Each structure stands twice: as structure tokens, then as C-alpha cells.
Amino acid sequence: xxxxxxxxxxxxxxxxxxxxxxxxxxxxxxxxxxxxxxxxxxxxxxxxxxxxxxxxxxxxxxxxxxxxxxxxxxxxxxxxxxxxxxxxxxxxxxxxxxxxxxxxxxxxxxxxxxxxxxxxxxxxxxxxxxxxxxxxxxxxxxxxxxxxxxxxxxxxxxxxxxxxxxxxxxxxxxxxxxxxxxxxxxxxxxxxxxxxxxxxxxxxxxxxxxxxxxxxxxxxxxxxxxxxxxxxxxxxxxxxxxxxx
Amino acid sequence: xxxxxxxxxxxxxxxxxxxxxxxxxxxxxxxxxxxxxxxxxxxxxxxxxxxxxxxxxxxxxxxxxxxxxxxxxxxxxxxxxxxxxxxxxxxxxxxxxxxxxxxxxxxxxxxxxxxxxxxxxxxxxxxxxxxxxxxxxxxxxxxxxxxxxxxxxxxxxxxxxxxxxxxxxxxxxxxxxxxxxxxxxxxxxxxxxxxxxxxxxxxxxxxxxxxxxxxxxxxxxxxxxxxxxxxxxxxxxxxxxxxxxxxxxxxxxxxxxxxxxxxxxxxxxxxxxxxxxxxxxxxxxxxxxxxxxxxxxxxxxxxxxxxx
Amino acid sequence: xxxxxxxxxxxxxxxxxxxxxxxxxxxxxxxxxxxxxxxxxxxxxxxxxxxxxxxxxxxxxxxxxxxxxxxxxxxxxxxxxxxxxxxxxxxxxxxxxxxxxxxxxxxxxxxxxxxxxxxxxxxxxxxxxxxxxxxxxxxxxxxxxxxxxxxxxxxxxxxxxxxxxxxxxxxxxxxxxxxxxxxxxxxxxxxxxxxxxxxxxxxxxxxxxxxxxxxxxxxxxxxxxxxxxxxxxxxxxxxxxxxxxxxxxxxxxxxxxxxxxxxxxxx
Lengths: 245, 308, 267
Known about the structure:
By secondary structure, chain A is α/β, with parallel strands linked by helices. Chain A has helices spanning 43-50, 73-78, 96-104, 111-125, 140-153, 170-185, 197-203, 221-226, 228-234; strands spanning 5-14, 17-27, 32-36, 58-63, 66-67, 81-83, 158-162, 189-193, 206-211, 214-219. The longest helix of chain A is centred in the C-terminal third of the chain and has 16 residues, at 170-185.
């Protein structure tokens, strides 16, 4: 069976600096895959490439076997891939509901249908009571959930989550972990960038580790955690304390 | 409200009718600008170009080919929409944002102005004068009140278009683009297409207004119809009233046009020419500092409280 | 003149629409000094620069400071408002007639090698070069100049190392305004001026700054030369009244191809 997403020898450099180099991996239908690596490893660049915001210098990206190379971000959303941003980007002066409706409109062009869909998603992420507040006034934890809700409203087959837990306290992280697991349980495949190792270990079925834009390890969480190359890559990094022991 | 406006000319003096014509007309232009400037947040400071192009087209067609301005106004609007598409295409394709887009629109308007100034066939610097015949087929009316109804109809048209946008996903998409274009694209919005649509509709409506401008004032000067000051007049009403809201441009016009009349009546007599523009400037500064969303949200709050 | 604009934009990313009108005020101040007190504009420009410095600091502190973090559009509108006030205040104060300032140097010409040169133009050019050089020295050799450049590079970083960013901004805006004021006074003896020219001058100087490169002093200088060349070429090739056509076309092309300008850094 063809994987849902195939990244095939992706490369991207900025002014001679290789951000991503010959990187290949795939995400299967319904899977939860984590992409980890030290700071500056190129994780966010990978997301930008997959979602069409950046064009790779080399390599190919296939969704369900069809190349999406050169397609604009909105077209890729229509194909069933949606991303969130590490630094959340709400539409600050629009209400929470209308924020989510923007995403829902990708599948339901009628405002009425999009609104119904958006309300259902808000219910699911636990933001229903905040629906008429302007998004600019939410707390960080709420904004992270809004970011997730908007992406979810586009009804993706594959959801790219860029550090949706960063900066949250334990209780808030717990809630998001539950939420992400529930979404995955509905059959939505998830590709996760995360620094919170506890969450990665709890959630991911498979982990791809990159460093310096290259893949250095891949496998089940406990195998990856014991991999000497991974431990070495994390040594000296500020997140060494967060790395699995 | 609309009913009151419909019967107003029957009871009001000719002067009041004239004031209302200007209110409607500038509210109309403001509403047209609002689509691209307010909803989509693409600050065009060159909308005068569309007024001028629309006006010149209708007048020239009528003078040279005897085409009725009623038809000419749609030709002019179509040409304006074409110009809008060119500006939009260049600006949006090359990713010009904020100030750079402002400059691009100003540069195009200025080029139009310089061309009109230098093409003798369209009157050059002197511009074009329309001889009064009073023939309705020529967009000329003996009775001021007809202009009143035409201006009102234009305003209703533009407001209807914007209301339609609000009821359609394009309205929400434009607002999302204004708030954060990159985030909107990540959620499936084809930002380029939506912005182009906004620009073309906006410039079409603005161009349509050009014909009214020409046949109400009976003259066309390049510096007046293509100049930066007219662009400022177009922008300031929606900004003051509330950009990106349906009633904003209308509210702004009802605030500003009487102000303009007032200062024209009381100040310009003694050589105080710029007084109303100083007032505009002060108002703009005040709005930016204290009411960044314009007067409408504030007015709505006050009325909401009164009702509750 | 564009040097001042470039400085303000480069440091604060604030687009000063009031620029041309500040220049017009510089011209009128020079005119007032010359007409009322008999001060030659080539001396008076110092006073004009000082006055505009104060005005610049006040505008920055009182208005721009409040919305430095607001969207770009709001700043554009704010400065447009300031421009309208300044322009029409000048109109009220001085009337719409064009004015001209006489200097002792007006009409004096010398042979400079094979060239027959207007001394007034020569002096204006020389002072402009000297001012640009002085400004570069100020920016690169003094502490406050370094802070300005640091703030331009990275507001957050400057905050971290303890720079009083608001003060630096005020000074930068003031210095920018002072440059314009001086430029106005220096140009005043050469061309007649009137209040209505302010916004047009702003547009021209944006043109210069964009062509040369935002935030680059050398760029502003080169931009000034290029735009003048384009306008002269336009005047020769097309018609004198069409000269601006070429410079606006140049602006559009530069905007599309290299929006940061020829020497600007890409944002």
C-alpha cells in the first residue's frame, strides 16, 4: 500500500547553508509520526517544504502517490495536508468561531455549513465557550488549541503539528496530548514536531530523528531513545535534559 | 432609513440635497475602496486612478463617438477593472505588502495623471469640459434631485455588493488575509485569487463612480481626478468610519462631508483654504491613536448599551 | 533629503509620509529667516535643522511612539494625517503663492574648469555631501549613532543590552527630520516652492529611497542620482513635462524586481 505521504530525498539550502539534505521518510495512513532533532536541525523547514510554503531545491513530495511539488499551500490543503505554526498565528481581530470557519470553508464553501462544522470542532478542542471572543485575547494555551482547531477544520488526512505543546504547563500539555491522541484515533495521520519528549514518547508510534538537516535515526520510540547517534546529536544541545535518558 | 432618504429631496432644500449627493458619492467610493482596502487590508492609495480612468473613458466616448455615458460608464468601469487587475497582479504576484503596495498604487495613479496631463487629445492640463444639455441620455439632468437618486442608487449598489461579500466565503477569506496572509494560506485560502477578486471588483465600482463625478461636476482635470488628494478623500471616510465593516464608509461619509462643508463655508471665505484638510489630518491622527478600528465599533457599542 | 527618510525608515520601519511637508517647512523657515531677519539661507539652514530636529522628536515622542508596534498600515495613515496637517498649516500660514528665497549667492556663477557653474547649486551640493558624510560619521563613530544602528538591526537585541530604544528612536527621527529641514533650507534658494508640493515631494523622495535601498545612506545618495538621471533622460527623450513618467516607471520596476532597493538588505 502506498504511504499517505512520501518525502523523497528532499533538499533545501539557504545561501549555501543546507537546512535539509537528502531527507527521506514517509507517513502511513492513520499513523502518528514524530520528527525530532536538536534546535536548528531543520524540522520547521521540513514542514514549510511539505506544506508548499517553500519549494525544495531537490527531491519530491508525494501525497497518496501523487507529487505535490510546486503546488501552492492552499492547493495542498485541498489535497488533505494541513499544518500549524510553531509561533501561533491567529487572526487576532476575528472571533474564535470565525477563525475556525476560515479553515472549515476549505471543505464547506457555504458559510452556514462551515459554521456548523467550526462549532463541532470547537466543541472537540474545548473552546466552544470562547467562540465569540476575539482570538487576540486568548491565553497561550487557548491559542495553541485554536491553532489546532483551525487546522482540524480543514478536515485533513494528515495534520502537521509544529510544537503545539511548547510553553504549556503540565496540565495544559496533558489536555493537548489527550486531544491529539483522540484526533489520531479518528484516523487522522499526524506528523509531529515536538521538544517535549514525554509527549513524544507517549504519542508517537514511530520517530524520525534529524540533525543538520539529515536523518540520523528512525524507528520505534524506545529503540530511538537508546540509539547512540541520537544521544550524541543531543549532547551539548540545550535540550539534553529533555532528551530521553 | 432608506425610505427616509428616498423622500428627503421632496422636503429638503436644494443645498441640503447637494450636501447629501456628496455624502452618498464619497460613501460610495469609500465603500468600493473598502472591499480591497478595508476587508482585504491592501491599502491602495491610488484609487483616484480608477475614478479618473472611468471618468475620462465615459466623457471621451461621449464626445468622440456619441456613446451615451450610461453605456460609457460601464466601459470605463471595465477599463478601470483592467487597470486594477494589472496593479493587483503585479503587486500580489511579486508579494508587495504594506508600504510597498501603497507606493505601487500611488505610482500608477501618478503615471495616469501625468499621461492625462500630456495627451492633448483628452484636453491635456486644461482637462475636458462638458457642455450642459440637460439631456438625461447624456447623463445630464435639469433637476439636482435626479443626481441625488443616482448617487443614492450607486451607494446602495456598492453596499449591496459588500453585503453579498459578507454573506459569502470571500468576505471571511479577505478578512483572514488582512489579519494574517500566511496563516490564511495554510488554511486553504488562495490569497492571490481572493485579493485579485477584491481588487477587480473594487476598481470596477470605483471606475463606475468616475462617470458620475464627471457629469455632476461637468469638468475633468487630470490633477483633480487622478491626484493624490482625491485618493485621500476616498480612503479617509472608511478609515474614520471603520474599515472592513459594512456601515463604516457610510458612517465616515456622514461624519466627514458635513465637516468639510462646514469648514468650506466658514473658513474658505477668508483665504483659509486648507482648513478642512487640517481637520482631516487631525482626525486621521486621532483615529489611528484612539480608534484604530474606526468609529463604527464604538458607535455600535454605544447603541448596544442603549438597547440593553 | 532622502538620506533623512532612509534613516527614519531604516531604524524604525516607520514610513514618514510627512517627509516632504517637513521639507517644505524647512524651506519656509529659511524664507522667514531671510525675509524677516535677513539671515542668508546658507547660514539659516542650521537653524532650520535644529527646529525640525525638535519637531521630529516631538512627533516621534507624542505620536509615533504610541503605535510603533501597530501594523504598518496604521503608521502610514498616522503619518499621512501628520502630512495633511503640516501641509495645510503651511498653506494657512504662508498662502498658496509660490515663494523664492534670495541668497547672496543667487545668480552668482563661476567658471569651474570648462564648466560654467551656478555657485548656489555648487554650495548646496557641497553642503549636502558634507551633511551626508557628517551623518555617516555620527552613525558609525558615536555611541548614540551605534545605538541607532543597533536598534535598526534588532529592536529586541538592543532592548536586551539595555538601550533606551524610545530615546534612540526619538533621536533618529529628530536627526532624520533635521536632515530634511536642512535640505529644505538649502534647496530653497534654487527652486520656487509652495505648500502644495509637500506630498509630491514625499512621493519623489520615497522614489529615491526605494530605488537606492531602504535604510542605506549610500543607497539614498545613489538613488537620488539615478532618479535625477531618469528624470533628465525623460525630459530629453520624451518631453519636459513627462520626465516624472520615467522616474515613476523606474520606481515600479524597482519595486517589483528588487523591493529592498539596489543597495538595501532584503527584509
